[in-house]
Amino acid sequence: MAISDWPELERPREKLLHYGPASLSDSELLAIFLRTGITGKSAVDLARELLTHFGSLTELFSADQRSFCQIPGLGVAKYVQLKATLEMAQRALETGLKRGDIMTSPQQVRQFLRLSLAHRQHEVFMGLFLDARNRIIQSEELFSGTLTETSVYAREVIKRALFHNAAAIIFAHNHPSGHAEPSQADEVLTQSLKQALAYVEVKVLDHFIVGSEGITSFAERGLL
Q1: pTM of this prediction?
Q2: CA 40, 46, 52, 54 torsion-angle sign
Q3: CA distance 210 to 92
Q4: How is residue 38 annotated by DSSP?
Q5: Helix (H, G, I), strand (E, B) or coil at 137
Q6: Which partner for 59 in 8, 51, 55, 209 could form a disulfide, CB atoms 3.0-4.6 Å apart?
């Protein structure tokens, strides 16, 4: 059955307008993005198949161009549109965080980090550089690859903190496995960076581990 034949308030677009975007399922939101289905399948049917194929929205977002475009009904135009949409959402959240004390907006920080890191297929180590009023000066991807104490260089972190004249910093990195539990290596690395940055009077306010299954805060765990 075509979506146009559904009861009006069950159609994704009308449902969003009437009840708000939070009322929609992942497949309904994705159907709005897709706009149209393919022969024999509505946009919602196609969206459900995509989520089954990739496993989740996060996995869909992290798909490379080849794996994305090989799905019938998708193509380069949709891939570019998806990446542009993600980038716009990430920039909008970052702009909002720069306007005030991010410590008063913990959920917004988590949303920004989830958009920035949860879909990445390799480990990325990010720093959020803050001024004395806890406003973001700049966010930067500092290191990538397999992250250990020896591959994340304290000297380079200090250089970037001094370059931005930062008073504090929040670290974040992703676990491509999806699990957001900090490892012993993560804890050792965090303490090493905290001690190094203390020499230049830059505070480490938190370290977030981002996975597709959630986000863990070192500060909330009492690990700082």
Answers
A1: 0.70
A2: positive
A3: 19
A4: B
A5: strand
A6: 55
